[in-house]
Design brief:
187 residues, globular, Arc Repressor Mutant, subunit A, two-stranded antiparallel sheet, mainly alpha, Rna Polymerase Sigma Factor, Chain: A, 65% helix
Amino acid sequence: MKHKTEAIWKKFNPQLKHFILSRVSDQSVSDDILQEVFKKIHSHIGKLKDDTKVEPWIYQITRNTIIDYYRTQKIKEEIPQDLSISEKMPENIDSKTGFTSIKAIIETLPQPYAQALFLTEFEGLTQKELAQKLDISVSGAKSRVQRARKMLKTKLNECCRIEFDSHGTIVDYQCSEYFLSWFKKIS
């Protein structure tokens, strides 16, 4: 188990540090959160049954730890919007088929919005980096990402009823027959 944690540290430390720093501007707080993330990984690595899901699992732990930080600090700032949709698929969703179907739904969005979601949610760009890449203002990038998320949510609500608990974890879902037949075609 110690060996697994060390391997995870070597592989994910730099990208997790960047991920956290893009959401928490204080370097020392970022370091504390990163340390807390690896404590949680070390404590719970034995519960992970499928090694192919280690990366989404790590990012879910990281997002939750950042959210916990904001909650415990009772900061008047809002939790950053870019934590609301995960960059990686959560552990409790089949990462292969779930990832494929979400990508397929995003591809039905108008091109500028689909591009904004792919770059921020799947490639991990911050909204500032997105603005630079697309040569638009930061507020324009933020607006584009938020509109894309709303469009995606609308499309998902049209095909599925998804129920969340108070922590934002999916606890139940029910998909329309149309969506299920469409999903079988793309899987």
